[in-house]
Design brief:
The chain has 11 helices and 2 strands. It has 257 residues and is mostly helical. It folds into 2 domains: 64 residues, Orthogonal Bundle (Arc Repressor Mutant, subunit A), CATH 1.10.10; 131 residues, Four Helix Bundle (Hemerythrin (Met), subunit A) (Up-down Bundle), CATH 1.20.120. The longest helix has 20 residues.
Length: 257
């Protein structure tokens, strides 16, 4: 029988694979049908995820994936810095088995970066940090990092991250190489730089403090364009409608999990 933990784990995986977008609704009845279980079990799973900061509930909207604010985004990255750099700083040795496991994960990352499965690529890049914590012998921090990685994945989707997957994978390779050489200081420094690169790639337009900045930019008059559109340009609007985004936060969950 499907347990609440099974459901919460699947939802976390879907978030890390960028298959569930910020604000996506999670209907209890739909989830119960998907996992062939009672709504009570589904509600337990969603309650667990709410406590972990992945979903939230509204009396009107029901359950939905969180949409991190700018301040929450900054806090999430700062938390990851503290956890991951501190984890490496406290490391005194890494076993050959752990290095082998990390390299196996890196091999999967490299293959995914070259492949076309964006979901798998996103999941593996995020899961590297969870795998690293496990290999360094701290399963408690691994669980914590899994949640923070899921949240930063949502942040990357919400704030349109431009961070290159191949670059991220290359930085992971450098971190593992430093650990294999026993150079903890360099590994810690590389982790700090890596997290900084991921954060810097976010398009934080709202950072200017102007809540209308994005709308103001979108509605700015075009250079050299007349105030009133000509009949020709009006016709173009009808014959060439803008393409719809392929990502829809309300996509039925059955197509995602």
């Amino acid at each position: 029988m499907t347990s609440a933990t099974d459901i919460s784990n699947r939802i976390i995986e879907a978030v890390m694979a960028q298959k569930l977008a910020p604000g996506a609704r999670l209907g209890e009845q739909q989830l119960a049908m998907l996992f062939d279980c009672s709504r009570t079990i589904v509600r337990e799973a969603l309650t667990q995820l709410a406590a972990r900061g992945i979903v939230t509930v509204s009396s009107r909207r029901g359950w939905y994936v969180i949409e991190p604010s700018l301040s929450e985004a900054r806090e999430a990255f700062e938390a990851r810095r503290v956890i991951e750099m501190g984890l490496i700083r406290c490391t005194t040795s890494v076993s050959k088995a752990a290095i082998k496991q990390l390299k196996a994960h890196l091999a999967k990352e490299k293959a995914a970066v070259k492949g076309e499965d964006v979901g798998l690529r996103s999941f593996l890049l995020g899961d590297f940090h969870v795998c690293l914590a496990e290999c360094l012998g701290n399963s408690l921090l691994a669980d914590t990092l899994r949640d923070f990685t899921a949240r930063t994945t949502l942040i990357a989707m919400l704030y349109q991250s431009s961070h290159d997957a191949a670059h991220s994978c290359a930085e992971h390779v450098e971190i593992v190489a430093a650990l294999e050489q026993g150079d903890w200081a360099r590994a810690e420094q590389l982790m700090q730089v890596h997290i900084g690169h991921v954060q810097a790639a976010l398009k934080l337009e709202s950072a200017s403090g102007d809540p209308l900045a994005e709308l103001r930019h979108a509605l700015k008059p075009l250079s050299g364009a007349s105030a009133t559109p000509s009949p020709t340009s009006a016709q173009d609007l009808h014959t060439s409608p803008p393409k719809k985004s392929s990502k829809d936060a309300s996509t039925y969950l059955g197509a995602l999990l």
